[in-house]
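ok so for the tutorial part 2 we go from a plain amino acid sequence to predicted structure tokens. step 1 is just haveing the sequence, like this:
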Amino acid sequence: MAHLQLTALAGGADDEMEEVALLGSYDVEAGAVDEEAGMRRVQVRVAGMTCSACTGAVEAALSARRGVRRAAVSLLQNRAHVVFDPELAKDEDIVEAIEDAGFEAEILPDSTVSQPKSQKTLSGQFRIGGMTCAACVNSVEGILQKLPGVKRAVVALATSLGEVEYDPSAISKDEIVQAIEDAGFDAALLQSSEQDKVLLSVSGLHTEGDVDVLHDILKKIEGLRQFGVNFANSEVEIVFDPEVVGLRQIVDTIEMESSDRLKAHVQNPYLRAASNDAQEASKTLHLLRTSLLLSIPVFFIRMVCPHIPLVSSSLLMHFGPFRIGDLLKWILVSVVQFIVGKRFYVAAYRALRHGSTNMDVLVVIGTTASYVYSVCALLYGAFSGFHPPIYFETSAMIITFVLFGKYLEVLAKGKTSDAIKKLVELAPATALLLMKDKEGKYLGEKEIDASLVQPGDALKVLPGSKIPADGFVIWGTSHVNESMVTGESVPISKEISSPVIGGTMNLHGVLHIQATKVGSGTVLSQIISLVETAQMSKAPIQKFADYVASIFVPIVITLSLLTFLAWFLCGWLGAYPNSWSAETSNCFVFSLMFSISVVVIACPCALGLATPTAVMVATGVGANHGVLVKGGDALERAQNVQYVIFDKTGTLTQGKATVTTAKVFSGMDLGEFLTLVASAEASSEHPLAKAILDHAFHFHFFGKLPSEKESIKKRKEEILSQWLLDVADFSALPGKGIQCWINGKKILVGNRALITENGVNIPDEAEHFLVDMELSAKTGILVAYDDGFIGLIGITDPLKREAAVVVQGLKKMGVHPVMVTGDNWRTAQAVAKEVGIEDVRAEVMPAGKADVIRSLQKDGSVVAMVGDGINDSPALAAADVGMAIGAGTDIAIEAADYVLVRNNLEDVITAIDLSRKTFSRIRWNYFFAMAYNVVAIPIAAGALFPFTGVQMPPWLAGACMAFSSVSVVCSSLLLRRYTKPRLTTVLQITVE
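step 2 — the prediction. this is what the tokens look like for a chain of 992 residues:
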């Protein structure tokens, strides 16, 4: 408990306060539900909640259920507390209400002790190839969610990834892959949350004999549950018990038992995904080249050759019943249509088979109509002698332009995930393992794959190399560049016991470190996971695009048919001059070209890409600036923030209590007074106690300690054991302070309430001095000894240097800052005045912070909460947007929507500004996508033709369609140029 006030619990009472804080998102009465006659109270485990919006949805669903009196949901506990009338509702109704809201529910036993499920739910990340628009995403998600055992499925078009939560006892990952492939898409598992399964790439598997050797080795490894060797890809998937055998031991055993013929390496899922992206881009480029090489001659024969007499006459020569020029075009276009364009036919068939439509359907309809008409016209001319115009070049050019657009789109979408790639590249590939025997004697060092580092390993880090895992220094001194996490370019000094972060750069000396967190447990991996999760999420605004995409293609096909019928009937009835259709020989062909143009120019992809690409770029940019966003919904809410609530201690202040004043109001010597108070506080674990102890120690022993830090530590421990007085009957008094006995006399250290309750009179001089301290933002601690007042101590927590400027900046942005603290009113108002906050809520207990937020939310205002401690977690969950300071606790970070990694309040402004810029860009994306379709479809339908005589040929319509989605992705990529707002700009200050 880091608050600078004596109302915080000390010592043994901490656990009680933490419990109140964690449950603080419940209603005030939730902990003491009235036991009215006939009322039933249940605890329900709710799975699937990710943010405060989820808890609101569950609460709303429960409250709307008949018979429910009260419902409160805790995000941190993943529980709902429900009070209902058993005559009007049953337990099953409560579960059904939560499940109808989109979450999983399970009634907990009366003991309220969570019972573990028989099977854990796994989260698998799958690569899904072949998706082209939002309709494809909806189709895949729908199929996955219908599979037995699948709890949740989210598919992202921009990354071609799908995340599936499933019960491994009901469905396997191979069955999920098979279901996706049956839907017409490529699929492969990239990674899973299952900790004891890993994919190894094995070099040296050249023959079946090598496979047999590998089989024999793996069978002998104790703790290896199962394995499967893929000879074609030189991979082996293993499932092992990490309690019995380590991954490094498995890899070493493979190499040793094969006499180094076989080398095993852990496959990096991110590198594998990057390889798949490169393969997709390469495959698309190959198809584009083939299509272009075949389409250029077709276009040349159609547009250029008729103007070259010699070539023209040669092409008009007959080969049997066909003209040579027409025959050449037929052969070339057939290859483009059915070999290069096969992917469109396959994708369209699979989409239609599952009752959905997408861009591939439009491409197939447009190109097939043009191709079939041209073949019919060619055959008619060959056997009748009358040669109507043919449009083979239309289908060929459409396919070429669409492939060109898809290739550009693949490249552009790859840029949106650059943030992940850069984060992954921060992790070193190898590590130097210090090998020791059982007695701890140094045997040598060995270079190993960084993914094989295990907790407890001793690692050597050379100057200029990256630290391979989170841990602490066990030997050596150096400076480390931790700017990837802290944002500070100044190197951090490291010595024995100093913590180190994996992925940071060791600059000068050699370090020996002991790994404490490896793999997914490291800070870097958690950052990557947060960014990935955010990029997988959907912003609520995307629901609009998903809905439009689901009805877009049927509407376009209908418009295409109406266009054809309108032009054809008008021509048949003579409503327009025959000269209009003279170039195409008849009104049927004239109408068909307009119809094909409408089908081809419409683009659902632009709508589908508008939101996810922007969210992907924004989350990546945020990570680069030290702001981790947990999803598109958090981005969307943050743009409308009207109130920002700041916790005081550790958020607005540095969270480091220091004694600034010590004054004696009796005949006691100051040194004797400090010794007395330090002895009493030595038994307390409160942060204020530590500050008093440090101050007293330095008062007595300043200049009397050795210079080396290790020596200081040992000497300080020796002095403390000899210097402090013996204490008896120590007790912490929650919300007041402490009391104990020293030299047979009672000593009290605490606030006014503690002193006055014990009948001790506070002198007027001390009272005035205390008030002056509180007015200057200091917390006063009063001391009484042997039933008499002897003195007081003033403690302050310095403000962060940027606090006042950030508060002023928020005001300039139209955001109202509020400070909520448990400190006394005078100190709180003094701090608020110093930073420029007018709205102050003081003496608020942790559970009350969430109530403050709810009071501001009553009128529909969007409230953000910035905090760092366990006691801020309920408030972070209750707020519309929770922002956790990165140096805060894991629970606070878990409850928040934003994590400000660099512990800098300026990032609050960055978070709000980034969300505003992102959604401004999304709105522009939607505008461009909608405006494109609204303008392009009428033009393709010939709306301007009666007035200008301008007709858009289908191949040009295909080019427009191809570039529309590319333009939206490029629009989102402009967010990569985002720069943090300079406070001088926000405050409109001119710097000379």
